[in-house]
Write a structure and sequence with these properties.
- The chain is an all-alpha fold.
- The protein has one domain.
- Keywords: Membrane, Transmembrane, Transmembrane helix.
Length: 308
């Protein structure tokens, strides 16, 4: 591979990696659309549990092929920490994300989730003593103004999507907490090692919940349901996180961070094309403010953060 630590070397491998980062952020942007389609037949816990039940064994296999068994070498004392990360990052955050899409639009969900950047900034300052720059504060103010436009749609009476938007915001906050707490584990282990253990413990937590909730026999799944779940498990979870982790090995975090702007764009466009969701002037203005706020906050110190 001729991409080494962001050294700027060119070549086909470098171009393939950049193309891969574009694609996986488009995948993450499209996840809300896929969840909406899965909701036509499945419930919240079914979507969540099946996504990880499919993705986790595949991730373990891919990690063994790529890095070998050494990727799973961790100290026994750190296992409870991985389990706690899984509870916050998978069982809680992903549950709230999926649940929110039963009550709000894929467009709103995608844009709200991108506010995780700012929750991470503020939590990192509070819990880890990271510096809050003027750029970050101004960017956050602009982005949350964009959120206000999206949630209210210019009407300050209660929106029909207000419940789902609120749940999405809680899921976004939970993801930010997971990301900040995960920094401690990432100081000791590779991001891929942490990811595997989080997926493993998350799946173990979700499987009992799946069987305790009403669920549709997999033999009754429609083609659209299989397509949606396959996309969520393989494209959004397996491929996306593998490419993301490979990118972190080869490129600076500031370079990886640039690609996050693809996520809200793909999410909004695909929600309009696939689901027929309306893009009002307030939605577009709110999206523009959120994207600008993200850019302004990160233009000096890029930090990449994986999405849904």
């Amino acid at each position: 591979m001729d991409v080494e630590n962001g050294a700027g070397k060119t070549g086909k491998s470098w171009l393939w990696l950049l193309a891969g980062l574009v694609v996986i952020n488009a995948f993450w942007g499209a996840s809300g659309v896929a969840i909406k389609e899965a909701y036509l037949q499945l419930g919240t816990m079914e979507i969540l549990a099946l996504r990880f039940a499919i993705a986790t064994p595949l991730l373990i296999g891919a990690t063994l092929l790529w890095k070998g068994r050494k990727a799973f070498n961790v100290e026994l004392k750190d296992i409870p920490y991985f389990a706690a990360l899984a509870t916050i990052g998978v069982t809680l955050s992903f549950f709230l994300q999926v649940l929110s899409l039963d009550y709000t639009t894929a467009t709103n969900f995608t844009l709200i989730f991108n506010l995780s950047t700012f929750f991470i900034i503020f939590l990192s300052a509070w819990l880890m003593g990271e510096k809050l720059t003027n750029n970050k504060l101004i960017g956050a103010f602009v982005a949350f103004a964009g959120l206000a436009l999206i949630v209210t749609n210019g009407n300050f009476s209660l929106s029909p999507n207000i419940l789902g938007d609120g749940i999405a915001l809680m899921g976004t906050l939970a993801w930010a907490i997971y990301t900040v707490l995960g920094k401690r584990a990432n100081e000791k282990y590779s991001a891929l090692t942490v990811l595997n253990y989080v997926f493993i413990f998350g799946t173990l937590e979700l499987i009992p919940l799946y069987f305790l909730s009403p669920h549709t026999p997999v033999t009754a799944f429609t083609g659209l349901t299989w397509l949606s779940m396959g996309f969520l498990a393989i494209c959004c979870s397996l491929i996306a996180f593998l490419v993301y982790n490979y990118g972190l090995e080869k490129l600076p975090a500031s370079t990886i961070a640039v690609f996050i702007y693809i996520m809200p764009l793909s999410g909004v466009l695909l929600a309009a094309i696939v689901l027929g969701e309306a893009m009002t002037a307030y939605t577009l203005a709110g999206a523009a403010l959120i994207i600008f706020g993200m850019f302004f906050a990160e233009k000096k110190h890029g930090k990449a953060g994986a999405s849904s």
